[in-house]
Amino acid sequence: MVRIEAFYLGNGVESFVEKDFHQRVNVIWSDDNNVGKTIVMQGIMYVLGSMPSFPKNFPHRTCIFVVDIDVGGRKLSILRNKNTYAVLEDGEVLTLDSVEAFREYWSSSIGHLPSIVKNGMNKRVGLELYSQMYFVSQDARSSSRVHAGQFNKDDFIEMVYAIKGLDARELTPQEEAELKRRAEDLKQQRKSLERQAKVLRDKDPALVLISPTADRAEMDDLVGELAKAKEVVADLRKQRNRLLRRLTKNEIVQKELNSLRIDIKAGQIVCLDCGSSHIGYRMADSGYTFDITTPQMRDQILASVQKRIDACNAELAQVNDDLRDAQRHLESLFEDKPVTLADVVARQEDYDSERDLDDQ
User: Fold this and answer.
1) Contact, 307 vs 246, CB < 8 A?
2) 3-class state of residue 302 by DSSP
3) Phi/psi of residue 188, each to 5°?
4) Can you say how many angstroms the Cα of residue 135 is from the centroid of all Cα atoms in its chain?
5) CA dist 72 to 94, 106, 110, 164, 332, Å?
6) DSSP-derived 3-state class of residue 265
7) 263, 279 in Cβ contact below 8 A?
8) Which residues fall within 8 angstroms of residue 245, CB to CB, at 6 or more apart?
9) DSSP code of 202?
10) What pLDDT tens digit does each residue of the chain (360 aa) get?
11) What is the C-alpha separation between 11 and 16, in angstroms, rounded?
12) Which residues contact 321 (CB under 8 A, 6 or more apart)?
């Protein structure tokens, strides 16, 4: 169970703190409208990984959000600025450079997040899907439709199944496609038995050689299956490229921090603008900076960067495995099934009665 203990919001000019939460149902109320009640709930969900759902006139990208939580006795402070995070636990700071990285951290270190199949690929989902479905604010929105986002109601149902143990990660995209093909074949067999389907409805390699109609039908099926397989390969390649860019950036940061020497016998590193000997590490696309003058903080930042590098390598290994499987599946679609002369002769008698249909 996740219990909210405090919420902080600020932008360097003004700030807001709500620490009066209790271990029971909490009601945030006011006699006035437009005083920020909804923003407190939106901000908490935003820190925990959901998409921004703030009013259009609220400058959330210039703000820093912090939430103190208790997860089964573990005390954590989570900071979010744009799409970058910092997590404080037991005096140690962990930095995360994306929503995806925070989602992976939560699933591996705090609580397992479910996975669903989305567009033929496994996708880990978190608070983003949950809040998109259940939270309705006052900003001209209706509970009769899903909030704008990448997910839909079917995805929410799949998430519920995954939470109950029917996790979509048990099936690869290729396995799912194979089950769908098998189901389609069974439907075709049932129709054939029920309606005594004519020969041209039956997909037979021998019939394809002598029937233009059957050949066109098989070609249409193959083109559609090839398009889907190519799309899976392309998506996995894009995902691998994103991971490689993230890995490269973190390795560069790690190299710079490792090579940094604060104290030099001949002098000292100072800021040319102000003369200060304090230097900091600022995460990409973020407004907050960590003082890395002290070895302790520098070691914590290095540990965070190493964890991000390890996570990237693990994801890359999985994506590469999925890509190899998808490429092998795509290659298998081009393989020809052997057909003997005996197969063709056996089908010829059935085909003769359907020749007129081919001509039409």
Assistant:
1) no
2) helix
3) -65, -40
4) 20
5) 20, 14, 9, 20, 49
6) coil
7) no
8) none
9) S
10) 889 999 999 998 899 999 999 888 888 888 888 778 888 988 998 999 888 888 888 889 999 999 999 998 999 999 999 999 999 999 999 999 888 889 889 988 988 888 888 877 778 887 777 766 666 555 555 544 445 567 787 888 888 888 888 765 556 678 878 899 999 998 887 776 555 545 444 555 545 444 554 555 566 666 777 788 888 888 889 989 989 988 888 888 888 777 765 554 444 555 656 666 566 666 665 555 666 667 787 788 888 888 889 988 988 998 898 888 888 887 887 665 554 555 444 445 555 544 544 454
11) 10
12) none
In the numeric block, the tokens 């979010």 are attached to 80
Residue 264 DSSP SS3: strand
The torsion defined by the Cα of 137, 138, 141 and 142, in degrees rounded to 10, comes to 80
| Amino acid type, 156 | F
The rounded radius of gyration (Å) of the Cα atoms in the chain is 29
Answer for the pair 311, 250: CB distance below 8 angstroms, yes or no: no
Given the structure tokens 């090839």, which residue do they identify? 226
Query: Residues 263, 266, 267, 269: is their CA dihedral positive or negative?
Result: negative
**Smallest Cα–Cα separation from 327: which of 174, 221, 171?**
174
Contact 137, 182 (CB under 8 A): no
Residue 114 backbone zone (phi > 0: left; psi -120 to 50: alpha; other: beta): beta
Indicate the pTM of the whole model: 0.59
Q: Which amino acid is at 342?
A: A
